[in-house]
Amino acid sequence: MRIALFITCVNDTLYPRTGRAVVRLLRRLGHEVVFPEAQTCCGQLHYNTGYRREAQKLAVRFVETFADADAVLAPSGSCAAMVRDNYPRLCAPGSRLDRAAAELAPRVHDLSELLVDVLGVTDVGAYFPHTVTYHPTCHGLRLLKLRDRPYRLLRNVRGIDLRELEGSAECCGFGGTFAMKNADVSAAMAADKARNVAATGAEVLCAVDNSCLMHIGGTLRRQRAGVATVHLAEILASTEQEPARL
Amino acid sequence: MSPDHSSPGAGHAAQDRAAGHATFLGMLPFPEAAERAVGDSQLRHNLRMATRTIRHKREEVVGELDDWSALRAAGKAVKDRTLRHLDTYLERLEAAVTAAGGRVHWAADAAEANEIVTGLVRATGETDVVKVKSMATQEIELNEALAQAGIIAYETDLAELIVQLSDDLPSHILVPAIHRNRAEIREIFRDRMAAWGVAAPEGLGDDPRALAEAARVHLRERFLRSRVAISGANFAVADTGTMVVLESEGNGRMCLTLPQTLISVVGIEKVVPTWSDLEVFLQLLPRSSTGERMNPYTSTWTGVAPGDGPQEFHLVLLDNGRSDVLADEVGRQALRCIRCSACLNICPVYERTGGHAYGSVYPGPIGAILTPQLRGTASAQEASLPYASSLCGACYEVCPVAIDIPEVLVHLREEVAASPGHRAEKAAMGAAGWVLGGERRLGAAQRAASAARSVVPRRMPGPASAWTDTRDIPEIPEESFRAWWRREGAAEPAPGADPAEPGRSGGDEEGGRR
Amino acid sequence: MSGSRERVLARVRAALADVPAGEAPEDVAVPRDYAPAHDQGETTALFAERLEDYKALVHRTPPEGLAATVARALARRGAGRVAAAEDAPEDWFAQAEAEVVRDGGLDVAGLDRMDGVVTGCAVAVAETGTIVLDGGRAQGRRALTLIPDYHLCVVRGDQIVAGVPQALPRLSPARPLTWISGPSATSDIELDRVEGVHGPRTLEVVIVE
Question: In B387-509, which ranges are E strands?
Answer without folding.
Answer: none
